[in-house]
Design brief:
Largest sheet: 5 strands, parallel
Subcellular location: Membrane
Family: Belongs to the glycosyltransferase GT106 family.
Keywords: Carbohydrate metabolism, Fucose metabolism, Glycoprotein, Glycosyltransferase, Membrane, Signal-anchor, Transferase, Transmembrane, Transmembrane helix
Number of helices: 19
Structural class: alpha/beta
Helix content: 40-55%
GO molecular function: glycosyltransferase activity
Strand content: 5-15%
GO cellular component, one term: chloroplast
Distance between the termini: 122 Å
Length: 502
């Protein structure tokens, strides 16, 4: 038997130990590598599962509603969800760019129209551009106000929407799309016969004005319902706006019922409508100068009292106070002012505050830091007012602008919640008769209430006026096709609620 010396054993051990260390190190590296690969594989599978879930979730749950509710407090008497149209496979006919004009609610309605046009013509829609050059000069982009990811995903079975044009169609690469405003109040035949052929020559068309470019009436039922799906489902506000709007609603509801008063007595409205009733001479001149400063405002010389007598002016805060009292609102009711800065400030709100002390605004309910993110972004601030107005116990607009109309339509969808549509032409007559002593308070109150019995947001057929689309009822104020199906419409509206065709 071979006997090794202690020195030989020591030398051999010194050779073996490094080899064992190398083996251990390799083993550890191998284990580390396996763990890294496994983690990557698991995360990849998770991402794929989420993508598949987002793709098929709307279809899986279509039988349970398939219709996202507004994330604000709503009444339990909601109408049945609008059915989702079947998924479509179609050949893309081109790309549609749109630049919306106007304030938040004008742009909102226009977006609904443009999605419908894109679907009708089998076009790919680029996420709309919002107006940054209007009086409000709001720099907000689409995804600063609306949840763009939800907008695209919720409409994926109906129209393809992309965030930006492919590079080959970019202006940076010298491509010039056809720019044009479509004709106002047009039906589907106009777009099929006059707009669609243009895409054979121009692969991209840019609509540089989008307000009221689709008719109120005479549109196929599937397109009317699509306008509603975009409005009520796809156009969700961003999570930040939704969260703060919901907080405002909760704070108000905890204190009891509240009225949302859309007091449109703001500088831009007064200047461009020429309404100066109740203003000082200096204020009237300031408003006139503002109107003349905008070259696109065609009508310069306006006689304020004539405009007012025709019902074309917003009520003043003092007039609004009298009308609310005549309608029976108690002194202790909460009134949320859903508007921007009132022209004349607190001085002009004195009479309204005296009649209804519980007047609140956004900045009175929230901490300064909570609104800081939204300052100087009028559309984002308007979105907060929209959420509150849609959720209020009663909504009272003092002017029938886009905000008033679109909120009215939302409240109809949310169960015909009370919206008092003021008949300003009649009210001006009654106010003047009361001020000059012809009508006593009791007579004035009775006349105001009687003239508004049918103007409380109850079910009613949308009014159609042949060849006068500007004068007929606005689709988004009363989207009746989305509030019932063909079997229940007659029961819902009833023969007495039809205004007929004029």
């Amino acid at each position: 038997m071979e006997v090794r010396s202690e020195s030989e054993v020591q030398v051999r051990s010194e050779k073996v130990l490094p080899l064992q260390g190398q083996v251990i190190q390799r083993t550890r590296l191998k284990v580390w590598f396996i763990r890294v690969c496994s983690s990557i594989l698991i995360w990849t599978c998770l991402v794929q599962l989420i993508a598949v879930w987002e793709l098929y979730q709307p279809r899986l749950f279509s039988g349970f509603g398939g219709y996202t509710k507004m994330s604000v407090h709503v009444e339990e008497t909601l109408p049945s969800p609008l059915p989702r149209l079947p998924a479509r496979n179609y050949t893309n006919n081109g790309f549609l760019q749109v630049s919306c004009n106007g304030g938040l609610n004008q742009m909102r309605a226009a977006i609904c129209d443009m999605v419908s046009v894109a679907r009708l013509l089998n076009l790919t829609l680029v996420v709309p551009e919002l107006d940054k050059t209007s009086f409000w000069a709001d720099p907000s982009n689409f995804d600063d106000i609306f949840d763009a990811r939800h907008f695209i995903a919720s409409l994926r079975d109906e129209v393809r929407i992309i965030k930006r044009l492919p590079k080959r169609f970019s202006r940076r690469y010298g491509y010039q799309p056809l720019e044009m405003p479509p004709v106002s109040w047009s039906n589907e035949k106009y777009y099929l016969q006059q707009i669609l052929p243009l895409f054979s020559k121009h692969q991209v068309i840019h609509f540089n004005r989008t307000d009221t470019r689709l008719a109120n009436n005479g549109i196929p039922l599937e397109l009317q319902k699509l306008r509603c799906r975009v409005n009520f489902q796809a156009l969700k506000f961003t999570p930040d706006i939704e969260a703060l709007g919901e907080k405002l609603v909760r704070m108000l509801q905890e204190r009891g019922p509240f009225v949302a008063l859309h007091l449109r007595y703001e500088m831009d409205m007064l200047a461009f409508s020429g309404c100066t009733h109740g203003c000082t001479t200096e204020e009237a001149e300031e408003l006139k100068r503002l109107r003349y400063a905008f070259p696109w405002w065609r009508e310069k010389e306006i006689i304020s009292e004539e405009r007012r007598s025709q019902g074309l002016c917003p009520l003043t805060p003092e007039e609004a106070a009298l009308i609310l009292q005549a309608l029976g609102f108690e002194k202790d009711i909460q009134i949320y002012i859903a508007s921007g800065d009132i022209y004349g400030g607190e001085r002009r709100l004195a009479a309204l505050r005296a009649a209804f002390p519980k007047i609140v605004k956004k900045h009175m309910l929230l901490k300064p830091g909570e609104l800081q993110h939204f300052q100087n972004h009028s559309s984002q601030m308007a979105a907060l007012d929209f959420i509150v107005a849609a959720s209020s116990s009663v909504f009272v607009p003092t002017y029938d602008g886009n905000m008033a109309k679109v909120v009215e339509g939302h409240r109809r969808y949310l169960g015909f919640k009370k919206t008092i549509r003021l008949d300003r032409k009649r009210l001006v007559e009654l106010l003047d008769l009361h001020h000059n002593g012809t009508l006593t308070w009791d007579e004035f109150t009775a006349a105001v209430r009687q003239s508004h019995e049918g103007r409380m947001g109850q079910p009613v057929h949308r009014r159609v006026i042949a060849d006068k689309p500007k004068e007929e009822d606005y689709f988004y104020a009363n989207p009746q096709e989305c509030l019932c199906d063909s079997k229940t419409c007659d029961d819902l509206f009833g023969p007495d609620n039809s205004t007929g065709v004029q």
